[in-house]
Design goal:
Elements (H helix, E strand, L loop, with lengths): L6 H21 L1 H8 L3 H4 L6 H22 L5 H27 L4 H24 L4
Length: about 140
């Protein structure tokens, strides 16, 4: 397996992933809070800033992994990368998190909000990675 990746493509994809999350949860904050059982009082002080750093690092790990898989596949270009990102998002992330959410008795609406974000973000990350040649 070849682990050569384009670090700039990984960085740009990670920034896009993170930025989508900020936009996604700003737009969907009310339904997300309602389905997650979070009140306005719970979020008044805001989260610990470290959560944003950890989120970015974990999303970078996901994007780096996607870049390695893409680099070892025959898929290329915008459509090839986006297709792989969507496949990973739906076929791996969405499928496995469905199991976790079921056992945790979480509301389907919460899963659709959270799952939709990651599927779309992985699709976008795959598209960006697909147009940038590896290493």
């Amino acid at each position: 397996m070849d682990f050569t990746v384009n670090i700039w493509a990984v960085l740009v994809s990670t920034v896009a992933y993170f930025a989508l999350g900020a936009l996604w949860y700003m737009v969907l904050s009310k339904p997300w809070m309602a389905t997650a059982g979070i009140t306005q009082a719970d979020v008044e002080d805001g989260p610990n800033p470290a959560i944003y750093v950890i989120t970015f690092v974990l999303e970078a790990v996901a994007v780096l992994s996607l870049a390695v898989v893409l680099g070892n596949s025959a898929l290329t270009g915008l459509v090839g990368g986006a297709s792989l990102g969507a496949l990973v998002g739906v076929g791996i992330w969405f499928a496995l998190m469905s199991v976790t959410f079921m056992y945790e008795s979480r509301k389907p609406a919460l899963f659709l909000i959270d799952g939709g974000y990651h599927v779309i973000a992985l699709t976008i990350a795959g598209a960006v990675l697909g147009v940038w040649p590896p290493g």
